Amino acid sequence: MIFYKEQIIYPESFRQPSFFISPFSTADLEKNAMIVKDCSCNENTIKKYNSFFGKHEYFLSGKEAINKALSHYLLQKEDEVLILTTTANSYVSSCVTKEIEKFCTWSRQKTDKTKVVFIIHEFGKIYNDMETVKKFNLPIIEDCAMSMFSNDENNLIGTHGDFTIYSIPKFFPVQFGGILKINCENYSITHTKIYKDYLQKLVLHYFQDTEHIINQRKNNNCYMIAGLTKLGFTSYFEYSEFETPSVCMFENNGCDIVKLKVFLQQHGIECSVFYGKDAFFLPVHQALGVFEMDYILNLIEFFIHENK
Amino acid sequence: MIFYKEQIIYPESFRQPSFFISPFSTADLEKNAMIVKDCSCNENTIKKYNSFFGKHEYFLSGKEAINKALSHYLLQKEDEVLILTTTANSYVSSCVTKEIEKFCTWSRQKTDKTKVVFIIHEFGKIYNDMETVKKFNLPIIEDCAMSMFSNDENNLIGTHGDFTIYSIPKFFPVQFGGILKINCENYSITHTKIYKDYLQKLVLHYFQDTEHIINQRKNNNCYMIAGLTKLGFTSYFEYSEFETPSVCMFENNGCDIVKLKVFLQQHGIECSVFYGKDAFFLPVHQALGVFEMDYILNLIEFFIHENK
């Protein structure tokens, strides 16, 4: 243990704080139980919620929602799902690839075997060439797990495909849950899930905070990037006014970011290298205040200093 | 993931709650920074603090305090430190044994080589045969890391030895810190530690809550034991009115407690088998409310049900 700028470096493992990509924290377990008990929503919120999620089904996770969407197409082993992502980086989350592999294979180029196009709107940055994709005349799934509150200027993201995937914990302080928005016909929703009411009440509740969530994340990203710039890094993304960050992604400047990942995770910070790029991401959610962001920035400063 | 009684079993690893033996939680980082900034204590508290801790030195951890106490005796490799514990269980925390091994060996029986007696007041239960120990006419160290607020009816625990060890995070919501109380002469305190002011302000602040901490822990232990009794377990300790539990220790009733440990730790709960005994311990600190205790009890209920 080291005491550095009034914070502990290398804490005991059972005294690690938690800073997740999700705004979820231990205290939210009880808060959410209360919200579910006393759920009250005004009509306006219900209207906005319905207009946003349309026809939809709840799942335990975004992964389960992906699985259900894929199952719609009766894919054969030799079929391919084409994955297109905002950054076109070679790395794609295993949350997506593992689900596809349960049905068929996946590729990064369109071939004769492509049966479905899976668009990942990454980290709150939208995939911006949907027009080309639509010309393929293939079924489209849009993955907005990391981009619930990101859109284009015409508000069309989430409407292009048969299905749109959302992840509840990525934006709301909830421990689990995925939403599958259904834009196509001949899909029948399973209404009997025991967690549906619980999740719907929470999503309805937190949906009222949308504006705050969006603004706070944008502000937090600015604050983090300003601090990281002082440490020699630069912002990786430029977000449009219609996009909301789900992480703080920064471009590296010669730092051993694989080692940085281990170091920060040892301090309870969910983060990672954006493999395939010389970039790294940190939490940026709405529950982070200046104290917590400084805490993370101080750790990075310490790491740089120690590894010079 | 499984949704059971409105809580998630097997959560994603970056959506794990934290229930430590320590009352420390992530939110305390900021709270403590504020307390250190605005520290104000009344004279009465300072008086009580001084009377409780006497002449003392701050350390990063209880382990460091143990090390410093041992270093006082110029122990030789062939010397032995006799470890006596409340339960006389064969298992002793490696926090103690590892520090002793830096100087000499340790034993559980008095021999001709015994140079120091190290008393561990375990889990808030005091070692109650100090009179016999004192007849050895050997230097005594009392380890109250888990027993800061436990005493005998004459209030003598912590006064028998040359040194008494306290662990700050075990009782206060602080991430780190140990206190070495010095009851002997010819020991000189190092006053230049950069974390001393920080820790002292926090200990002074939280010391004001002593009565609440003691009562809440006693109540929480009753609540937990009542819930565990319904699940077929029994209390392991009987605490006197002068003792404050640092964990909820229960006696097993045929459950696979090694597997229970893995299961509960997967859900963010610091806990363990009390190795050497058919017993198990859980958090019981003052920051746990009924919701959190029910959460832990529900998990144990689920585990028993699944492993029948």
Topology:
2 copies of one chain form a homodimer.
Chain A: E1 2-4, E2 7-9, H1 27-37, H2 43-53, E3 56-59, H3 62-71, E4 80-85, H4 94-101, E5 105-107, E6 114-120, H5 130-135, E7 140-143, E8 163-167, E9 178-182, H6 196-207, H7 210-230, E10 234-235, E11 248-251, H8 257-266, E12 272-273, E13 279-282, H9 290-306
Parallel strand pairs in A: 4-5, 4-6, 6-7, 7-8
Antiparallel strand pairs in A: 1-2, 3-9, 8-9, 10-11, 11-13, 12-13
Can you walk through the features of this model?
- The structure is a homodimer of 308-residue chains.
- Chain A has 308 residues and is an alpha/beta fold.
- Chain A folds into two domains: 2-19 and 210-306, Aspartate Aminotransferase, domain 1; 28-207, Aspartate Aminotransferase, domain 2.
- Chain A has nine helices and 13 strands.
- In chain A, strands 3-9-8-7-6-4-5 form a seven-stranded mixed β-sheet, with helices on both faces. Chain A has a four-stranded antiparallel β-sheet with strand order 10-11-13-12. A two-stranded antiparallel ribbon of chain A has the order 1-2.
- In chain A, helix 7 (210-230) packs parallel to helix 9.
- The first copy, chain A, is globular.
- Chain A starts with a strand and ends with a helix.
